């Protein structure tokens, strides 16, 4: 995490916010694209203080959350876990990448095995190597987690709104094309009837 750190002051690590902004923008863009393509997004957190917030966020945006202990074969062996074939998420968003104080979250490893992209808030004591879109930042502060949740929610809403807008545009174009084709067919049949009667 050294390249993402600005320095240290009074025992607290300070992140380089210029780099955080760049990585955050890339992650939000990716989240919006997954939402636009109607992908399944799952929020993951083991921090008891943020569990309710994460579950509410997932409910608000119509996605999924996992805030309990991670079973090792949730992603790698869904047939055994769920008893049948199930669609795996297209994106995992980790609000903290540590399962305990020192252990990395098992979900990051499983997602890497299954080639599922990940977005994660990566604190100074975490390893960003398994994360597809790391966001260098503080994952301990409730204020920062609330900010990240708000940004994730906006990105998902924007992606889904754009998808609805494009679908409405497509439906309108198809309806117009169908109406035009029907009008042309009626006109041609009227012309054929006129020429047959004369």
UniProtKB/TrEMBL annotation:
<dbReference type="GO" id="GO:0003735">
    <property type="term" value="F:structural constituent of ribosome"/>
</dbReference>
<feature type="region of interest" description="Disordered">
    <location>
        <begin position="160"/>
        <end position="198"/>
    </location>
</feature>
<dbReference type="InterPro" id="IPR005706">
    <property type="entry name" value="Ribosomal_uS2_bac/mit/plastid"/>
</dbReference>
<comment type="similarity">
    <text>Belongs to the universal ribosomal protein uS2 family.</text>
</comment>
<feature type="compositionally biased region" description="Basic and acidic residues">
    <location>
        <begin position="160"/>
        <end position="173"/>
    </location>
</feature>
<dbReference type="InterPro" id="IPR001865">
    <property type="entry name" value="Ribosomal_uS2"/>
</dbReference>
<dbReference type="Pfam" id="PF00318">
    <property type="entry name" value="Ribosomal_S2"/>
</dbReference>
<dbReference type="GO" id="GO:0006412">
    <property type="term" value="P:translation"/>
</dbReference>
<feature type="compositionally biased region" description="Low complexity">
    <location>
        <begin position="174"/>
        <end position="183"/>
    </location>
</feature>
<dbReference type="InterPro" id="IPR023591">
    <property type="entry name" value="Ribosomal_uS2_flav_dom_sf"/>
</dbReference>
<protein>
    <submittedName>
        <fullName>Uncharacterized protein</fullName>
    </submittedName>
</protein>
<dbReference type="GO" id="GO:0005763">
    <property type="term" value="C:mitochondrial small ribosomal subunit"/>
</dbReference>
């Amino acid at each position: 995490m050294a390249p993402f750190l600005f320095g240290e002051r009074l025992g607290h690590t300070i992140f380089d916010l210029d780099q955080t902004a760049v990585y955050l923008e890339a992650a939000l863009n990716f989240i919006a694209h997954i939402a636009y393509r109607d992908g399944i997004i799952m929020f993951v957190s083991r921090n008891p203080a943020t569990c309710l917030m994460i579950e509410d966020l997932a409910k608000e945006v119509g996605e999924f959350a996992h805030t309990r202990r991670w079973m090792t074969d949730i992603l790698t062996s869904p047939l055994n876990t769920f008893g049948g074939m199930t669609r795996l998420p297209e994106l995992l968003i980790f609000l903290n990448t540590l399962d305990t104080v020192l252990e990395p979250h098992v979900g990051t490893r499983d997602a890497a095995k299954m080639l599922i992209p990940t977005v994660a808030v990566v604190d100074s004591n975490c390893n960003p190597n398994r994360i597809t879109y790391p966001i260098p930042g503080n994952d301990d502060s409730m204020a920062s987690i609330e900010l990240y949740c708000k940004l994730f929610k906006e990105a998902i809403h924007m992606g889904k709104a754009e998808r609805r807008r494009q679908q409405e545009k497509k439906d309108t174009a198809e309806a117009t094309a169908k109406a035009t084709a029907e009008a042309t067919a009626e006109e041609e049949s009227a012309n054929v009837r006129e020429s047959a009667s004369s």
